[in-house]
Amino acid sequence: xxxxxxxxxxxxxxxxxxxDLTFHIEPHSFQFLTGPSGAGKTSxxxxxxxxxxxxxxxxxxxxHDIASLSxxxxxxxxxxxxxxxxxxRLLDHLSTYENVALPFRVVGRDENSYRGEVIELxxxxxxxxxxxxxxxxxxxxxKQRAAIARAVIARPQLLLADEPTGNVDxxxxxxxxxxxxxxxxxxxxxxxxxxxxxLMDQYDARRLVLHDGRLHxxx
Amino acid sequence: MADIEDISGPTSTRKSGSPLPRTETPIVPKNSIAGRAxxxxxxxxxxxxxxxxxxxxxxxxxxxxxxxxxxxxxxxxLRATSGRDGEADVRRAADIARSFPGIAxxxxxxxxxxxxxxxxxxxxxxxxxxxPVPRLVVARIAPGATPDLAQLRRQLAERVAxxxxxxxRAWVDRMRTMARTAVAGGVVVLAxxxxxxxxxxxxxxxxxxxxxxxxxxxxxxxxxxxRFISGQFLKxxxxxxxxxxxxxxxxxxxxxxxxxxxxxxxxxGGAAADQVTALFxxxxxxxxxxxxxxAQILLVAVVTAAxxxxxxxxxxxxxx
Lengths: 219, 320
Hints:
The complex is a heterodimer.
Chain A: E1 2-10, E2 16-25, E3 30-34, H1 41-48, E4 56-61, E5 64-65, H2 71-78, E6 81-84, H3 96-105, H4 111-124, H5 140-152, E7 158-162, H6 170-185, E8 189-193, H7 197-201, E9 206-211, E10 214-218
Parallel strand pairs in A: 3-8, 3-9, 6-7, 7-8
Antiparallel strand pairs in A: 1-2, 1-4, 4-5, 9-10
Helix pairs in contact in A: 3-4, 3-5
Chain B: H1 5-8, H2 33-71, E1 73-78, H3 86-99, E2 103-108, H4 111-122, E3 135-141, H5 149-159, E4 163-166, H6 169-210, H7 213-221, H8 226-267, H9 270-280, H10 286-319
Antiparallel strand pairs in B: 1-3, 1-4, 2-3
Protein backbone atom coordinates (compact mmCIF):
# COMPACT_ATOMS: atom_id res chain seq x y z
CA UNK A 1 0.00 0.00 0.00
CA UNK A 2 2.73 2.49 1.03
CA UNK A 3 6.39 1.90 0.31
CA UNK A 4 9.30 4.20 1.26
CA UNK A 5 12.73 3.40 -0.15
CA UNK A 6 15.74 5.39 1.06
CA UNK A 7 13.65 8.49 1.46
CA UNK A 8 15.31 11.68 2.65
CA UNK A 9 13.83 15.09 3.32
CA UNK A 10 15.36 18.48 3.93
CA UNK A 11 13.74 21.92 4.05
CA UNK A 12 15.56 24.32 1.75
CA UNK A 13 19.29 24.18 2.29
CA UNK A 14 18.96 22.97 5.89
CA UNK A 15 20.06 19.60 7.26
CA UNK A 16 18.11 16.42 6.46
CA UNK A 17 15.23 16.04 8.90
CA UNK A 18 14.43 12.54 7.64
CA UNK A 19 17.24 10.22 6.62
CA ASP A 20 17.19 7.11 4.56
CA LEU A 21 13.71 5.92 5.56
CA THR A 22 12.82 2.49 4.22
CA PHE A 23 9.58 0.90 5.37
CA HIS A 24 6.17 -0.15 4.14
CA ILE A 25 2.58 -0.05 5.35
CA GLU A 26 0.54 -3.13 4.48
CA PRO A 27 -3.20 -3.15 3.74
CA HIS A 28 -5.40 -3.68 6.86
CA SER A 29 -2.42 -3.00 9.15
CA PHE A 30 -2.32 -0.97 12.36
CA GLN A 31 0.76 0.93 13.53
CA PHE A 32 1.86 3.66 15.85
CA LEU A 33 4.39 6.28 14.82
CA THR A 34 6.26 7.69 17.77
CA GLY A 35 9.43 9.45 18.75
CA PRO A 36 10.60 12.54 20.64
CA SER A 37 9.52 16.03 19.69
CA GLY A 38 11.38 17.29 16.63
CA ALA A 39 12.20 13.76 15.47
CA GLY A 40 10.28 14.36 12.22
CA LYS A 41 6.88 12.73 12.87
CA THR A 42 4.90 15.57 11.31
CA SER A 43 7.26 15.71 8.31
CA UNK A 44 6.81 11.96 7.79
CA UNK A 45 3.02 12.36 8.03
CA UNK A 46 3.18 15.15 5.45
CA UNK A 47 5.15 12.89 3.14
CA UNK A 48 2.59 10.15 3.65
CA UNK A 49 -0.20 12.59 2.96
CA UNK A 50 1.45 13.91 -0.22
CA UNK A 51 1.69 17.45 1.02
CA UNK A 52 5.48 17.30 0.74
CA UNK A 53 7.73 15.70 -1.81
CA UNK A 54 10.92 13.94 -0.66
CA UNK A 55 14.29 15.41 -1.59
CA UNK A 56 15.56 11.91 -2.36
CA UNK A 57 14.36 8.34 -2.46
CA UNK A 58 11.20 6.71 -3.76
CA UNK A 59 7.69 6.79 -2.36
CA UNK A 60 4.98 4.61 -3.85
CA UNK A 61 1.40 4.99 -2.72
CA UNK A 62 -1.23 2.46 -3.81
CA UNK A 63 1.25 1.30 -6.44
CA HIS A 64 1.96 4.76 -7.88
CA ASP A 65 5.34 6.45 -7.81
CA ILE A 66 4.29 9.86 -6.46
CA ALA A 67 7.18 11.65 -8.19
CA SER A 68 5.62 10.91 -11.57
CA LEU A 69 2.08 12.03 -10.74
CA SER A 70 0.39 15.28 -11.74
CA UNK A 71 -1.25 17.53 -9.14
CA UNK A 72 -4.70 16.31 -10.14
CA UNK A 73 -3.62 12.68 -9.81
CA UNK A 74 -2.16 13.43 -6.37
CA UNK A 75 -5.51 14.95 -5.34
CA UNK A 76 -7.27 11.80 -6.54
CA UNK A 77 -4.85 9.63 -4.55
CA UNK A 78 -5.28 11.86 -1.50
CA UNK A 79 -8.99 10.95 -1.48
CA UNK A 80 -7.96 7.40 -0.58
CA UNK A 81 -6.14 8.72 2.51
CA UNK A 82 -7.88 10.20 5.53
CA UNK A 83 -6.05 12.48 7.92
CA UNK A 84 -6.86 13.66 11.44
CA UNK A 85 -4.97 16.77 12.47
CA UNK A 86 -3.93 17.49 16.01
CA UNK A 87 -5.59 20.91 15.71
CA UNK A 88 -8.70 19.39 14.03
CA ARG A 89 -8.78 21.88 11.14
CA LEU A 90 -12.56 22.11 11.06
CA LEU A 91 -14.02 24.99 9.04
CA ASP A 92 -15.57 27.36 11.56
CA HIS A 93 -18.41 28.58 9.36
CA LEU A 94 -19.66 25.09 8.50
CA SER A 95 -21.79 22.93 10.80
CA THR A 96 -20.44 19.62 12.11
CA TYR A 97 -22.52 17.86 9.46
CA GLU A 98 -21.09 20.04 6.67
CA ASN A 99 -17.52 19.60 7.91
CA VAL A 100 -17.88 15.83 7.91
CA ALA A 101 -19.57 15.89 4.48
CA LEU A 102 -16.78 18.01 2.96
CA PRO A 103 -14.90 15.11 1.26
CA PHE A 104 -18.11 14.25 -0.62
CA ARG A 105 -18.82 17.85 -1.51
CA VAL A 106 -15.41 18.47 -3.07
CA VAL A 107 -15.90 15.56 -5.46
CA GLY A 108 -19.22 17.02 -6.57
CA ARG A 109 -21.55 14.40 -5.07
CA ASP A 110 -25.19 15.34 -4.64
CA GLU A 111 -26.15 15.91 -1.02
CA ASN A 112 -29.02 13.42 -1.16
CA SER A 113 -26.56 10.65 -2.04
CA TYR A 114 -24.50 11.00 1.14
CA ARG A 115 -26.80 12.58 3.72
CA GLY A 116 -27.73 9.26 5.39
CA GLU A 117 -24.13 8.10 5.47
CA VAL A 118 -22.93 11.30 7.18
CA ILE A 119 -25.71 11.26 9.75
CA GLU A 120 -25.11 7.60 10.52
CA LEU A 121 -21.40 8.18 11.07
CA UNK A 122 -22.05 11.23 13.24
CA UNK A 123 -24.35 9.16 15.42
CA UNK A 124 -21.72 6.42 15.56
CA UNK A 125 -19.09 8.83 16.89
CA UNK A 126 -21.61 10.27 19.35
CA UNK A 127 -22.30 13.55 17.57
CA UNK A 128 -25.88 12.81 16.49
CA UNK A 129 -27.19 15.63 18.66
CA UNK A 130 -24.47 18.08 17.64
CA UNK A 131 -24.52 17.76 13.89
CA UNK A 132 -25.94 21.22 13.24
CA UNK A 133 -23.69 22.95 15.75
CA UNK A 134 -20.78 25.08 14.60
CA UNK A 135 -17.25 24.03 15.68
CA UNK A 136 -17.02 27.10 17.94
CA UNK A 137 -19.57 25.58 20.33
CA UNK A 138 -18.13 22.04 20.32
CA UNK A 139 -15.94 20.75 23.12
CA UNK A 140 -12.38 19.55 22.39
CA UNK A 141 -13.49 15.93 22.38
CA UNK A 142 -16.41 16.67 20.07
CA LYS A 143 -14.13 18.51 17.67
CA GLN A 144 -11.73 15.59 17.71
CA ARG A 145 -14.53 13.16 16.88
CA ALA A 146 -15.82 15.44 14.12
CA ALA A 147 -12.30 15.58 12.65
CA ILE A 148 -12.06 11.77 12.78
CA ALA A 149 -15.50 11.43 11.19
CA ARG A 150 -14.42 13.73 8.35
CA ALA A 151 -11.25 11.68 7.85
CA VAL A 152 -13.10 8.37 7.60
CA ILE A 153 -16.41 9.34 5.93
CA ALA A 154 -15.14 8.54 2.43
CA ARG A 155 -13.88 5.11 3.65
CA PRO A 156 -10.18 5.79 3.05
CA GLN A 157 -7.83 2.86 2.60
CA LEU A 158 -5.27 4.57 4.83
CA LEU A 159 -6.00 6.68 7.91
CA LEU A 160 -3.30 8.95 9.34
CA ALA A 161 -3.87 10.55 12.73
CA ASP A 162 -1.56 13.16 14.24
CA GLU A 163 -1.76 13.05 18.05
CA PRO A 164 -5.48 12.24 17.95
CA THR A 165 -5.64 11.91 21.73
CA GLY A 166 -3.52 14.93 22.52
CA ASN A 167 -6.44 17.14 23.53
CA VAL A 168 -8.70 14.67 25.33
CA ASP A 169 -8.88 12.99 28.73
CA UNK A 170 -7.70 9.35 29.15
CA UNK A 171 -11.18 7.84 29.00
CA UNK A 172 -12.01 9.62 25.75
CA UNK A 173 -8.56 8.68 24.45
CA UNK A 174 -9.39 5.04 25.08
CA UNK A 175 -12.73 5.45 23.27
CA UNK A 176 -11.03 7.09 20.30
CA UNK A 177 -8.49 4.26 20.17
CA UNK A 178 -11.36 1.76 20.08
CA UNK A 179 -12.82 3.75 17.20
CA UNK A 180 -9.54 3.46 15.26
CA UNK A 181 -9.34 -0.26 16.02
CA UNK A 182 -12.90 -0.71 14.72
CA UNK A 183 -12.00 1.15 11.56
CA UNK A 184 -8.95 -1.03 11.12
CA UNK A 185 -11.09 -4.14 11.53
CA UNK A 186 -13.34 -2.86 8.78
CA UNK A 187 -10.34 -2.79 6.43
CA UNK A 188 -8.65 0.59 6.82
CA UNK A 189 -4.92 0.71 7.45
CA UNK A 190 -4.27 2.99 10.42
CA UNK A 191 -1.19 4.94 11.39
CA UNK A 192 -1.39 6.94 14.61
CA UNK A 193 1.36 9.42 15.43
CA UNK A 194 1.54 9.85 19.18
CA UNK A 195 3.70 10.58 22.21
CA UNK A 196 1.25 8.79 24.46
CA UNK A 197 2.97 5.60 25.66
CA UNK A 198 -0.06 4.66 27.77
CA LEU A 199 -2.19 4.75 24.65
CA MET A 200 0.26 2.56 22.73
CA ASP A 201 0.33 0.11 25.60
CA GLN A 202 -3.43 -0.37 25.29
CA TYR A 203 -3.14 -2.00 21.89
CA ASP A 204 -0.56 -4.39 20.60
CA ALA A 205 0.53 -3.00 17.28
CA ARG A 206 3.58 -2.40 15.17
CA ARG A 207 5.62 0.64 16.25
CA LEU A 208 7.55 2.94 13.97
CA VAL A 209 9.97 4.93 16.10
CA LEU A 210 11.59 8.03 14.68
CA HIS A 211 14.76 9.18 16.34
CA ASP A 212 17.09 11.83 15.01
CA GLY A 213 15.57 11.59 11.55
CA ARG A 214 15.98 7.81 11.32
CA LEU A 215 13.25 5.22 11.56
CA HIS A 216 13.31 2.03 13.66
CA UNK A 217 10.54 -0.47 13.12
CA UNK A 218 9.38 -2.75 15.97
CA UNK A 219 7.07 -5.45 14.65
CA MET B 1 -28.30 2.08 8.69
CA ALA B 2 -30.19 4.36 11.00
CA ASP B 3 -33.46 5.89 9.96
CA ILE B 4 -32.54 9.30 8.64
CA GLU B 5 -35.93 10.88 9.03
CA ASP B 6 -36.10 10.47 12.79
CA ILE B 7 -32.87 12.23 13.60
CA SER B 8 -32.25 14.77 10.91
CA GLY B 9 -35.34 16.93 11.07
CA PRO B 10 -34.50 20.60 11.18
CA THR B 11 -36.13 21.20 14.54
CA SER B 12 -35.65 17.86 16.25
CA THR B 13 -31.90 18.19 16.43
CA ARG B 14 -31.78 21.89 17.06
CA LYS B 15 -30.42 22.81 20.43
CA SER B 16 -31.02 26.10 22.09
CA GLY B 17 -28.59 28.61 20.62
CA SER B 18 -27.56 26.31 17.78
CA PRO B 19 -27.91 27.52 14.22
CA LEU B 20 -30.60 26.11 11.95
CA PRO B 21 -29.53 23.09 9.90
CA ARG B 22 -27.45 24.15 6.97
CA THR B 23 -26.34 21.75 4.33
CA GLU B 24 -25.39 24.10 1.50
CA THR B 25 -23.36 26.78 3.24
CA PRO B 26 -20.86 28.25 0.77
CA ILE B 27 -17.43 26.72 1.31
CA VAL B 28 -15.91 30.20 1.28
CA PRO B 29 -17.68 32.19 4.04
CA LYS B 30 -19.84 34.99 2.68
CA ASN B 31 -19.90 37.48 5.52
CA SER B 32 -16.38 37.65 6.84
CA ILE B 33 -14.96 40.92 8.19
CA ALA B 34 -12.23 40.81 5.54
CA GLY B 35 -14.88 40.32 2.85
CA ARG B 36 -16.86 43.32 4.03
CA ALA B 37 -13.71 45.42 4.20
CA UNK B 38 -12.88 44.37 0.64
CA UNK B 39 -16.36 45.38 -0.56
CA UNK B 40 -15.89 48.78 1.10
CA UNK B 41 -12.47 49.31 -0.54
CA UNK B 42 -13.76 48.20 -3.95
CA UNK B 43 -16.85 50.42 -3.60
CA UNK B 44 -14.87 53.51 -2.62
CA UNK B 45 -12.21 53.07 -5.28
CA UNK B 46 -14.77 52.32 -8.01
CA UNK B 47 -16.69 55.42 -6.96
CA UNK B 48 -13.57 57.59 -7.22
CA UNK B 49 -12.55 56.05 -10.55
CA UNK B 50 -16.09 56.53 -11.89
CA UNK B 51 -16.12 60.16 -10.77
CA UNK B 52 -12.83 60.73 -12.57
CA UNK B 53 -14.09 58.97 -15.69
CA UNK B 54 -17.27 61.06 -15.60
CA UNK B 55 -15.22 64.23 -15.11
CA UNK B 56 -13.00 63.43 -18.07
CA UNK B 57 -16.03 62.64 -20.23
CA UNK B 58 -17.63 65.96 -19.23
CA UNK B 59 -14.50 67.96 -20.04
CA UNK B 60 -14.14 66.17 -23.36
CA UNK B 61 -17.79 66.77 -24.29
CA UNK B 62 -17.61 70.42 -23.26
CA UNK B 63 -14.42 70.99 -25.21
CA UNK B 64 -15.95 69.39 -28.29
CA UNK B 65 -19.11 71.52 -27.87
CA UNK B 66 -17.15 74.76 -27.57
CA UNK B 67 -15.03 73.91 -30.56
CA UNK B 68 -17.89 72.92 -32.83
CA UNK B 69 -20.10 75.85 -31.75
CA UNK B 70 -17.37 78.35 -32.47
CA UNK B 71 -16.22 76.65 -35.63
CA UNK B 72 -19.73 76.55 -37.09
CA UNK B 73 -20.18 80.32 -36.86
CA UNK B 74 -18.58 83.35 -38.49
CA UNK B 75 -19.19 86.94 -37.46
CA UNK B 76 -19.40 89.92 -39.75
CA UNK B 77 -18.50 93.14 -38.00
CA LEU B 78 -19.47 96.53 -39.37
CA ARG B 79 -17.60 99.48 -38.02
CA ALA B 80 -19.75 102.53 -37.40
CA THR B 81 -18.94 105.08 -40.13
CA SER B 82 -20.33 108.59 -39.93
CA GLY B 83 -22.51 109.61 -42.82
CA ARG B 84 -23.57 106.11 -43.74
CA ASP B 85 -26.86 104.32 -43.19
CA GLY B 86 -25.82 101.68 -40.69
CA GLU B 87 -29.06 99.68 -40.95
CA ALA B 88 -28.75 99.45 -44.75
CA ASP B 89 -25.14 98.23 -44.44
CA VAL B 90 -26.18 95.58 -41.94
CA ARG B 91 -29.00 94.38 -44.22
CA ARG B 92 -26.66 94.26 -47.20
CA ALA B 93 -24.00 92.33 -45.32
CA ALA B 94 -26.63 89.84 -44.06
CA ASP B 95 -27.97 89.42 -47.63
CA ILE B 96 -24.46 88.77 -49.01
CA ALA B 97 -23.82 86.19 -46.32
CA ARG B 98 -27.22 84.55 -46.73
CA SER B 99 -26.78 84.14 -50.48
CA PHE B 100 -23.21 82.84 -50.15
CA PRO B 101 -22.83 79.07 -50.81
CA GLY B 102 -22.38 77.06 -47.60
CA ILE B 103 -23.99 79.62 -45.28
CA ALA B 104 -27.21 78.28 -43.73
CA UNK B 105 -28.46 81.48 -42.16
CA UNK B 106 -27.33 84.95 -41.28
CA UNK B 107 -28.85 87.05 -38.55
CA UNK B 108 -28.15 90.67 -37.88
CA UNK B 109 -27.98 91.62 -34.22
CA UNK B 110 -30.33 94.51 -33.45
CA UNK B 111 -29.08 97.57 -31.57
CA UNK B 112 -30.82 96.25 -28.44
CA UNK B 113 -29.04 92.90 -28.76
CA UNK B 114 -25.69 94.63 -29.23
CA UNK B 115 -26.47 96.72 -26.14
CA UNK B 116 -27.18 93.56 -24.14
CA UNK B 117 -23.82 92.13 -25.22
CA UNK B 118 -22.12 95.22 -23.82
CA UNK B 119 -24.21 95.31 -20.65
CA UNK B 120 -21.68 93.47 -18.49
CA UNK B 121 -19.09 96.19 -19.19
CA UNK B 122 -21.13 99.36 -19.70
CA UNK B 123 -24.21 98.75 -17.58
CA UNK B 124 -27.88 98.69 -18.55
CA UNK B 125 -30.10 101.49 -19.83
CA UNK B 126 -27.38 102.89 -22.00
CA UNK B 127 -28.22 104.50 -25.34
CA UNK B 128 -25.78 103.34 -28.01
CA UNK B 129 -26.93 105.94 -30.53
CA UNK B 130 -24.14 108.32 -29.52
CA UNK B 131 -21.42 105.70 -29.44
CA PRO B 132 -19.58 104.26 -32.44
CA VAL B 133 -20.54 100.70 -31.55
CA PRO B 134 -19.92 98.23 -34.36
CA ARG B 135 -22.88 96.16 -35.58
CA LEU B 136 -22.76 92.42 -35.87
CA VAL B 137 -24.13 89.84 -38.26
CA VAL B 138 -23.78 86.22 -37.17
CA ALA B 139 -23.69 83.70 -40.01
CA ARG B 140 -24.15 79.99 -39.29
CA ILE B 141 -22.35 77.58 -41.58
CA ALA B 142 -24.50 74.80 -43.06
CA PRO B 143 -23.77 71.37 -41.55
CA GLY B 144 -21.05 69.62 -43.52
CA ALA B 145 -20.36 72.65 -45.71
CA THR B 146 -16.96 74.31 -46.08
CA PRO B 147 -17.67 77.75 -47.51
CA ASP B 148 -14.88 79.74 -49.12
CA LEU B 149 -14.55 82.28 -46.32
CA ALA B 150 -11.75 84.19 -48.12
CA GLN B 151 -14.11 84.83 -51.02
CA LEU B 152 -16.86 85.93 -48.62
CA ARG B 153 -14.41 88.24 -46.88
CA ARG B 154 -13.48 89.81 -50.23
CA GLN B 155 -17.11 90.28 -51.31
CA LEU B 156 -17.99 91.97 -48.01
CA ALA B 157 -14.99 94.28 -48.19
CA GLU B 158 -15.88 95.28 -51.75
CA ARG B 159 -19.61 95.80 -51.28
CA VAL B 160 -20.02 96.99 -47.69
CA ALA B 161 -17.83 99.73 -46.32
CA UNK B 162 -16.26 99.00 -42.95
CA UNK B 163 -17.25 95.30 -43.01
CA UNK B 164 -14.84 92.62 -41.84
CA UNK B 165 -15.21 88.89 -41.35
CA UNK B 166 -14.06 87.06 -38.24
CA UNK B 167 -13.98 83.25 -38.66
CA UNK B 168 -12.83 82.77 -35.00
CA ARG B 169 -9.79 80.84 -36.18
CA ALA B 170 -7.60 82.21 -33.41
CA TRP B 171 -10.25 81.25 -30.83
CA VAL B 172 -10.74 77.83 -32.31
CA ASP B 173 -6.99 77.18 -32.22
CA ARG B 174 -6.76 78.29 -28.61
CA MET B 175 -9.86 76.34 -27.73
CA ARG B 176 -8.48 73.23 -29.38
CA THR B 177 -5.22 73.51 -27.47
CA MET B 178 -7.08 74.11 -24.21
CA ALA B 179 -9.45 71.21 -24.84
CA ARG B 180 -6.61 68.86 -25.70
CA THR B 181 -4.71 69.90 -22.58
CA ALA B 182 -7.80 69.48 -20.40
CA VAL B 183 -8.58 66.02 -21.82
CA ALA B 184 -4.93 64.91 -21.62
CA GLY B 185 -4.78 66.08 -17.99
CA GLY B 186 -8.02 64.25 -17.26
CA VAL B 187 -6.74 61.05 -18.87
CA VAL B 188 -3.54 61.23 -16.79
CA VAL B 189 -5.58 61.71 -13.60
CA LEU B 190 -7.89 58.88 -14.67
CA ALA B 191 -4.93 56.59 -15.31
CA UNK B 192 -3.47 57.40 -11.88
CA UNK B 193 -6.81 56.87 -10.13
CA UNK B 194 -7.25 53.63 -12.01
CA UNK B 195 -3.81 52.36 -11.07
CA UNK B 196 -4.47 53.23 -7.43
CA UNK B 197 -7.86 51.50 -7.67
CA UNK B 198 -6.32 48.35 -9.07
CA UNK B 199 -3.53 48.35 -6.47
CA UNK B 200 -5.96 48.95 -3.60
CA UNK B 201 -8.29 46.23 -4.83
CA UNK B 202 -5.38 43.85 -5.34
CA UNK B 203 -3.97 44.40 -1.84
CA UNK B 204 -7.40 44.29 -0.20
CA UNK B 205 -8.16 41.02 -2.02
CA UNK B 206 -4.85 39.55 -0.92
CA UNK B 207 -5.62 40.62 2.64
CA UNK B 208 -9.03 38.97 2.48
CA UNK B 209 -7.48 35.86 0.95
CA UNK B 210 -4.94 35.56 3.76
CA UNK B 211 -7.78 34.85 6.17
CA UNK B 212 -8.95 32.06 3.88
CA UNK B 213 -5.71 30.11 3.82
CA UNK B 214 -6.95 27.51 6.36
CA UNK B 215 -9.94 26.82 4.09
CA UNK B 216 -7.66 26.27 1.09
CA UNK B 217 -5.54 23.87 3.15
CA UNK B 218 -8.49 21.87 4.43
CA UNK B 219 -10.03 21.58 0.96
CA UNK B 220 -6.65 20.44 -0.33
CA UNK B 221 -6.33 17.81 2.42
CA UNK B 222 -9.80 16.36 1.83
CA UNK B 223 -8.83 15.69 -1.77
CA UNK B 224 -10.20 18.73 -3.65
CA UNK B 225 -8.53 19.35 -6.97
CA UNK B 226 -6.97 22.76 -7.56
CA ARG B 227 -9.65 23.57 -10.12
CA PHE B 228 -12.40 23.03 -7.55
CA ILE B 229 -10.66 25.17 -4.92
CA SER B 230 -9.91 28.04 -7.27
CA GLY B 231 -13.46 27.80 -8.66
CA GLN B 232 -14.92 28.31 -5.18
CA PHE B 233 -12.79 31.40 -4.61
CA LEU B 234 -13.37 32.73 -8.11
CA LYS B 235 -17.14 32.69 -7.57
CA UNK B 236 -16.83 34.25 -4.15
CA UNK B 237 -14.44 37.07 -5.06
CA UNK B 238 -16.15 37.83 -8.36
CA UNK B 239 -19.36 38.31 -6.37
CA UNK B 240 -17.55 40.51 -3.80
CA UNK B 241 -15.95 42.58 -6.56
CA UNK B 242 -19.25 42.99 -8.40
CA UNK B 243 -21.03 43.95 -5.19
CA UNK B 244 -18.42 46.58 -4.29
CA UNK B 245 -18.21 47.79 -7.90
CA UNK B 246 -21.97 48.10 -8.20
CA UNK B 247 -22.22 50.03 -4.93
CA UNK B 248 -19.40 52.46 -5.86
CA UNK B 249 -19.95 52.68 -9.60
CA UNK B 250 -23.74 52.63 -9.19
CA UNK B 251 -23.58 55.57 -6.78
CA UNK B 252 -21.43 57.51 -9.27
CA UNK B 253 -23.79 56.68 -12.17
CA UNK B 254 -26.77 57.76 -10.07
CA UNK B 255 -25.00 60.95 -9.08
CA UNK B 256 -24.26 61.93 -12.68
CA UNK B 257 -27.81 61.02 -13.77
CA UNK B 258 -29.36 63.14 -10.98
CA UNK B 259 -26.96 66.01 -11.69
CA UNK B 260 -27.83 65.87 -15.37
CA UNK B 261 -31.57 65.80 -14.64
CA UNK B 262 -31.39 68.60 -12.11
CA UNK B 263 -28.76 70.78 -13.76
CA UNK B 264 -31.34 73.17 -15.25
CA UNK B 265 -33.25 73.45 -11.98
CA UNK B 266 -30.11 73.87 -9.86
CA UNK B 267 -28.74 76.66 -12.02
CA UNK B 268 -32.04 78.48 -12.30
CA GLY B 269 -32.85 80.57 -15.36
CA GLY B 270 -31.40 83.75 -16.72
CA ALA B 271 -28.08 84.96 -17.97
CA ALA B 272 -26.04 83.19 -15.26
CA ALA B 273 -27.50 79.82 -16.20
CA ASP B 274 -26.85 80.52 -19.89
CA GLN B 275 -23.21 81.36 -19.10
CA VAL B 276 -22.72 78.23 -17.01
CA THR B 277 -24.39 76.08 -19.64
CA ALA B 278 -22.23 77.65 -22.34
CA LEU B 279 -19.13 76.89 -20.30
CA PHE B 280 -19.95 73.50 -18.80
CA UNK B 281 -22.62 72.14 -21.12
CA UNK B 282 -25.55 70.27 -19.58
CA UNK B 283 -23.54 68.06 -17.18
CA UNK B 284 -24.31 65.13 -19.45
CA UNK B 285 -21.68 62.41 -19.79
CA UNK B 286 -23.75 60.71 -22.48
CA UNK B 287 -24.23 56.98 -23.12
CA UNK B 288 -20.50 56.51 -23.68
CA UNK B 289 -19.80 57.85 -20.17
CA UNK B 290 -22.31 55.51 -18.54
CA UNK B 291 -20.98 52.59 -20.57
CA UNK B 292 -17.42 53.41 -19.48
CA UNK B 293 -18.54 53.38 -15.84
CA UNK B 294 -20.27 50.01 -16.25
CA ALA B 295 -17.15 48.64 -17.94
CA GLN B 296 -15.13 49.90 -14.97
CA ILE B 297 -17.39 48.03 -12.54
CA LEU B 298 -16.87 44.83 -14.50
CA LEU B 299 -13.13 45.40 -14.76
CA VAL B 300 -12.79 45.96 -11.00
CA ALA B 301 -14.76 42.74 -10.35
CA VAL B 302 -12.54 40.83 -12.77
CA VAL B 303 -9.37 42.23 -11.14
CA THR B 304 -10.69 41.19 -7.71
CA ALA B 305 -11.43 37.67 -8.93
CA ALA B 306 -8.11 37.39 -10.81
CA UNK B 307 -6.16 38.48 -7.72
CA UNK B 308 -7.92 35.85 -5.63
CA UNK B 309 -7.01 33.24 -8.25
CA UNK B 310 -3.39 34.31 -8.18
CA UNK B 311 -3.31 34.07 -4.37
CA UNK B 312 -5.13 30.70 -4.30
CA UNK B 313 -2.73 29.26 -6.83
CA UNK B 314 0.28 30.54 -4.91
CA UNK B 315 -1.10 29.12 -1.66
CA UNK B 316 -1.70 25.75 -3.31
CA UNK B 317 1.84 25.74 -4.67
CA UNK B 318 3.17 26.40 -1.16
CA UNK B 319 1.10 23.62 0.39
CA UNK B 320 2.61 20.99 -1.87
